[in-house]
């Protein structure tokens, strides 16, 4: 990871041909709808989908400390498509020969520095079905913290990655995301906010 010396700045935006793109492709789908009418749909697809048939994983996580209440670790990073910092759970693409579980453990270690253990894996989920066939799986993981966790483990970030780690008590999860969403040039990832909002809804309506 290189040292941050300035705020990121977009210097140009131009059209990109699929043949020139490394990660994405733009396709046109011709289909017949439920009434028998022919229709067209434009869709973005990933070029990196491997044998598992799933593009990516996101790692919902619970940090467990011997004396403190349960917490979760979120990451903050600049995303050029939004020209903003996104607040997310750790996530990443699944390599060609990986399972979702393997990708989750690897990516969590790289982005956060922490070892984790998988507790559950969701079925494949649509990421943005109106625009893309991109899909993902939510892998829930636990992290057991040591009594003295004052020094965070070293991240294993690639060149160009700048990922800030923030530990948030689960009791403050929803409120902290609302605070981030109110900041200038910050955007909370939908899947993260939906999870926190679900927790908040269940607590507020005494469903748990």
Helix content: 10-25%
Mean pLDDT figure: 95
The unreliable regions are none
The number of domains is 2
CATH class of the largest domain: Alpha Beta
- Which oligomerization state do the chains in this entry correspond to? single chain
Number of helices: 3
Number of strands: 11
Strand content is 25-35%
Using the coordinates shown, work out and report the CATH topology of the largest domain: Nucleoside Triphosphate Pyrophosphohydrolase
How many strands, what sense, and barrel or not for the largest sheet?
5 strands, mixed
- As a whole number of angstroms, the C-alpha radius of gyration is 19 Å
Distance between the termini: 42 Å
**CATH homologous superfamily caption of the largest domain:** Nucleoside Triphosphate Pyrophosphohydrolase
Shape: globular
Organism: Sporothrix schenckii (strain ATCC 58251 / de Perez 2211183) (Rose-picker's disease fungus)
GO biological process, one term: nucleoside phosphate metabolic process
Pfam family, one: NUDIX
InterPro entries: NUDIX_hydrolase-like_dom_sf, NUDIX_hydrolase_CS, NUDIX_hydrolase_dom
């Amino acid at each position: 990871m290189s040292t941050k010396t300035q705020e990121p700045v977009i210097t140009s935006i131009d059209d990109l041909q699929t043949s020139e793109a490394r990660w994405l492709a733009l396709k046109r789908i011709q289909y017949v709808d439920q009434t028998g009418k022919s229709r067209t749909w434009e869709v973005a697809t990933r070029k990196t989908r491997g044998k598992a048939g799933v593009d990516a994983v996101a790692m919902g996580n619970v940090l467990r400390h011997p004396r403190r209440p349960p917490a979760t670790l979120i990451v903050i990073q600049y995303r050029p498509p939004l020209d903003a910092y996104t607040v997310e759970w750790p996530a990443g693409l699944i390599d060609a020969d990986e399972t979702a579980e393997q990708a989750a453990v690897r990516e969590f270690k790289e982005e956060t520095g922490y070892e984790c253990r998988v507790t559950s894996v969701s079925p494949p989920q649509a990421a943005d079905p109106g625009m893309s066939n991109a899909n993902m799986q939510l892998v829930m993981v636990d992290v057991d913290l040591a009594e003295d966790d004052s020094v965070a483990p070293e991240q294993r970030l690639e060149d160009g990655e700048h990922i800030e780690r923030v530990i948030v008590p689960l009791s403050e999860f929803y409120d902290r995301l609302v605070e981030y969403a109110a900041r200038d040039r910050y955007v909370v990832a939908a899947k993260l906010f939906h999870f926190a909002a679900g927790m908040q809804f269940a607590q507020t309506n005494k469903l748990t």
